[in-house]
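Before the break, one more example. Copy the sequence into your notebook; we will annotate it together after we see the structure.
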Amino acid sequence: IARGRSLGRALESSIRRAVGDGGQVILFLNLRGFSTTLWCSNCSSGVKCPACDVTLTWHKDRQRVLCHSCEFSAPQLRECLQCGTPGLRYLGAGTQRLEEEVRSRFREYTVARMDSDSMRKPGSHDATLDEFRHGRIDILLGTQMIAKGLDFPNVTLVGVVDADSLLHQPDMRAAERTFQLIAQVAGRTGRGEKGGRVIVQTSCPDDPVIRAAARHDFYGFAKLELGNRRELGLPPFAHLARIILRGPVEETVQSEARRIAGQFREAIESSGADVKLVGPAPAPLLKLRRQYRYHCRLQADGFEPIRELWLRVSPELKLDADVELTIDVDPLDMR
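Here is what the structure looks like once it is written out:
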């Protein structure tokens, strides 16, 4: 893909061919906004939300930078929030940038975008789908909103613009979510007599998860993923209980996490419980809504040893007044 472009040559020519032959196109990109990263050359990193450990996103339609994890919003930034260096670079492509590029390259076709930003008005979601169903929209692009449950026989091409956006997340279910989304959006094509094609743009074309999703090879993916889960002792071959501590002062949360993990470790050693303790460590999303987060996890082949350990230790847990504790059993999200 050429620098500054979201569409590769293969996908662009396939779009032109599909619409030229009377078909319709769906383009999937699971990133909202216009620029997904505001890059500071001095910090050598993306500018993060003051309240969260999350990079800010530039929303051109609102002329504001937003945090997608909290309510933080600010006018277009010219200087880094962390170091004050001017000259930020606006990098990465969200659905707004993709829409602008598609409209520029396919001026003769009708284009619509579906994401939580463009569908804020009541009824706009159904109205857009109705326009697409009746052939008044040639190219429909968007986020997860267009990935599930849509049945349009005239869709002959689906393009997954950035298949890697979920794959490289610090989450044990990242591969599962990536396969799920690609397979779901790929299923929107080929439902009519014309058949259909799926083009997946990725920087990891040989990744087995990407390849399995593009081929709709559920059994191949399941065999691979179950093998990985078995080797690492993760669900469904084990049970997990994630203990999360959060508070406004990182040092206090870190200290409490270490102390509580020590209590669990002592209880495991003294009782001989068949439970493994992993951590404590900063959560992948360290700061969320001005709260710092540390976590550890209890891991066992069955749930009963974890339950018995929790019942033994929890009455002795005395937390700092500024620290909250939550426990998430077999968590769906490890951020």
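Residues 250-271 form the longest helix (22 residues). The chain has a mean pLDDT of 87. Try to locate both features in your own notes.
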